[in-house]
Amino acid sequence: MGRYLAALDAHDAKRLPLAQGAKFTENTVALTLGDGFWQTIDKGSQSSTSRLVIADPATSQVAFYGAAKENGHGVLFGVRLKHKAQRISEIEQFVIRRGPAQIGEFDQPTAFDAAWTQLLPVAERLPRAELVRVANLYFEGIEKSSGDIVPLVPETSRVENGFRTAPRPAGADGKPAQTIRETFSSGMFQYIRQIKPRRFLLVDEERGVVYSMVMFQHPGNVTGLPMWDKQYKDPTSIINYPNSMAMTESFRIRGGKITHIIAQMVMLPYRQPTGWPDP
């Protein structure tokens, strides 16, 4: 991953050890390696305070969450790599930019909690399949508007696009503080009709981490939710038109419960393919 980031900063894809037939996508679109963000990233711009690497030697994959500058503007950036015999065979890259309905902290994203890199005691480590099962229940909880089926600790922290979205503090408008479980059960995510496909790509049993890439499907036909009055009046709100959201979402799991969540999300046309085979 370090070699990839250095080549990206230098705008020089020829530095990479590529496998024959290596595939590259950016924001789900297949591109020629060297195109897209490779041309617009500012050299030396990877953030030293907000970056995380997740590795899965069992599947020969590694993923990165971080921030960068693009033509002088702050963006969020993530990439997944897979290799065969030390040569890169898959590059799945995401660049998150400012835009309508796009939340995020693009210039000073929240630093990653130390828990993401801490090893779990051997006796607490769960099998890969169990870690994936727990992570998948998070998406089930969103689809079914039920926090009760999701194994969460009360203080579960979620950071989306560098911005902390849970737990939600009490609002100045009198809205009470809410945990993730409470937001799910409130019905506020009913506009998310489907989360499909769901690709669970990396698992780190030593740290209890699962990295996934999923597609949130927003058909734009959900109306009448009382908590969304303001959004109904905003033509750029994602609840007002069909769209999809590509989400690289990772979970830190301890004791069979989710303790930390991080995600980077990109707005896309409705039912945009991922660019990769569905599971």
Keywords:
single chain, 279 residues, mainly beta, Nuclear Transport Factor 2, Chain: A, 6-stranded mixed beta sheet, globular
Mind explaining what this structure looks like?
This protein is mainly β and 279 residues long. It has two domains: 2-96, Nuclear Transport Factor 2, Chain: A (Roll), CATH 3.10.450; 114-269, Nuclear Transport Factor 2, Chain: A (Roll). It is 14% helix and 38% strand. It has helices at 2-9, 37-40, 128-143, 180-185, 229-232; strands at residues 18-26, 29-30, 52-56, 61-70, 73-84, 87-96, 152-160, 163-166, 194-204, 209-218, 243-254, 257-269. Strands 2-1-6-5-4-3 form a six-stranded mixed beta sheet, with no helix packed on it. The protein has a six-stranded mixed beta sheet with strand order 8-7-12-11-10-9, covered by helices on one side. The protein is globular and about 55 Å long.
Strand content: 35-45%
Number of DSSP-assigned strands: 12
Instruction: Give a short account of the largest sheet.
Output: 6 strands, mixed
Oligomeric state of this protein: single chain
Distance between the termini: 25 Å
Instruction: Give the integer mean of the pLDDT values.
Output: 94
Low-confidence stretches: none
Topology readout:
Blueprint: H1 2-9, E1 18-26, E2 29-30, H2 37-40, E3 52-56, E4 61-70, E5 73-84, E6 87-96, H3 128-143, E7 152-160, E8 163-166, H4 180-185, E9 194-204, E10 209-218, H5 229-232, E11 243-254, E12 257-269
